[in-house]
Design goal:
14 helices; alpha/beta; Alpha-Beta Plaits; Rossmann fold; five-stranded parallel beta sheet; Beta-Lactamase
Length: about 450
């Protein structure tokens, strides 16, 4: 059995009217309730509120106007549509009916088609009103929730801003072209320019060309691979000097047509870089003289020897030491000996080319590697160095004195491809050094 379209309460004390209306309404699928007077009508509406009321004006215990007024004053029944039915067709009655909250006024005798049409219309209006009320309530709940969400968002944004302000990092949001969309740091002294000047400008407009290309490359790779990228770069900052930064770039939003966004977080690492450079320097350099230590010199020498043999370039090797260095230490003391070693290294570095490699081989013994240099050219360089050392002033001594060095020279010959290893090249230079010592010192000998 189909559920009724709606429930209608007929309030009329004339049985014939009730019967006719009941039959017509039920035939159209409506459920019908009936009441003979106002008291019954009010009781029914309290117990089982109908969807619409057909209310006669003339009732035994009260007029319909009074019943309507009481219905409208009750919150539970105030929204039920009331259609007045009456044998009277006077304007005053109609006006009063509408003033009391009635939605319609139908006069007897009834035109049932008209009654059905009006009932259906007012039920539709009532349904729309309820839908509108529900929508309004839903909207009100949504607005309330949105308001709470906005309040929470503002609170979280406030926390985030405080958190970002406390961070030593420099967070940015950029697009795929390297345009700064958001500058989220307050450490403006670490920026290359003021934050307001960076916004909506390209990386290439702010950073030096080399550093800009490094940053742009990381942005492109982050967008294409969707994997985080890590870079290092050095730039001048508003604080007045150059700083090193580690930049981490990660995809934030993947879009088409270069609309992707990345988050770019820069962290100052100047102290870390300088510490690393110092560690590298200490690992590769002689602590006393500052030239390369033996381990690092041998690594570089091996690379140069392999390059010379691969490309058939000449390569020269010089080994030298200070003549009678032990006697010097015995006479002037080890601190003076240390000063002599430092002075010797300074003179050598001033005498050699930028491509030449100087290393402390051990004690007072030093080595020089000369890329793309023949043995004959190295002999001339060694003789020039010997002469410079012999004339080197030693201002740190209490008396005027001079020291000399003995040098052995060897060379890789690409024509004969000899010697065949770095070890043999070093041995040849070492043998030549001993020959120079045997010849009376303060001279140069070649292998």
């Amino acid at each position: 059995m189909e559920a009724p379209k709606a429930t209608i309460l007929i309030v009329d004390d004339v049985p014939e009217n009730v019967m006719l209306l009941n039959r017509v309404l039920q035939s159209e699928g409506y459920a019908v309730q009936t009441a003979e007077n106002g008291s019954q009508a009010l009781a029914i509406t309290q117990r089982t509120p109908p969807d619409l009321i057909l209310l006669d004006i003339n009732l035994p215990d009260a007029d319909g106007f009074d019943v309507c007024a009481r219905l409208k004053s009750n919150e539970q029944t105030s929204q039920i549509p009331v259609m007045f039915i009456s044998a009277l067709d006077d304007a005053e009655g109609k006006v009063r009916a509408f003033q009391l909250g009635g939605v319609d006024y139908i006069t007897k005798p009834f035109n049932f088609e008209e009654v059905l049409a009006r009932v259906e219309t007012h039920l539709s209006i009532q349904a729309l009103r309820r839908s509108l009320e529900e929508a309004n309530q839903k909207l009100a709940r949504h607005v309330e929730e949105l308001t709470r969400s906005q309040q929470r968002l503002r609170q979280e944004q406030s926390k985030l801003n405080a958190f970002i302000s406390a961070l030593p990092n420099l967070p940015f949001i950029c697009d795929a072209e390297g345009r700064f969309l958001e500058i989220l740091t307050r450490h403006e002294e670490l920026l290359p320019c003021k934050a307001e000047e960076m916004k909506n400008r390209l990386v290439s407009e702010i950073f030096p060309e080399k550093e800009a290309e490094v940053i742009l490359g990381a942005i492109r790779r982050a967008v294409e691979s969707e994997q985080p990228q890590v870079i290092e770069y050095k730039v001048p900052v508003l604080a007045g000097d150059e700083r090193w930064f580690e930049g981490r770039v990660a995809l934030m939003e993947k879009e088409e047509n270069d609309s992707s966004k990345v988050v770019f977080v820069a962290t100052e690492i100047t102290e870390r870089v300088l510490l690393y450079q110092e560690v590298q320097r200490l690992a590769n350099h002689d602590v006393l003289t500052g030239c390369y230590n033996r381990r690092h010199f041998m690594n570089l020498a091996q690379q140069e020897f392999q390059r010379a043999t691969r490309y058939q370039h000449a390569l020269a090797f010089i080994m030298f030491d200070i003549d009678h260095f032990k006697h010097f230490n015995d006479r002037y003391g080890h601190p003076a000996g240390d000063q002599l070693l430092c002075a010797l290294v300074n003179l050598c570095q001033a005498s050699l080319r930028a491509v030449d490699i100087l290393g402390r081989y051990g004690g007072e013994e030093f080595t020089i590697l000369m890329p793309e240099t023949t043995r004959e050219a190295a002999m001339h360089a060694a003789e020039r160095l010997r002469s410079n050392v012999a004339g080197m002033p030693l201002d740190f001594l209490p008396e005027e004195t001079h020291v000399t060095i003995s040098l052995g020279v060897a060379g890789y010959d690409p024509a004969s491809n000899t010697p065949t290893s770095l070890e043999l090249l070093i041995k040849q230079a070492d043998d030549a050094l001993y020959a120079a010592k045997a010849a009376g010192r303060n001279c140069v000998r070649a292998a």
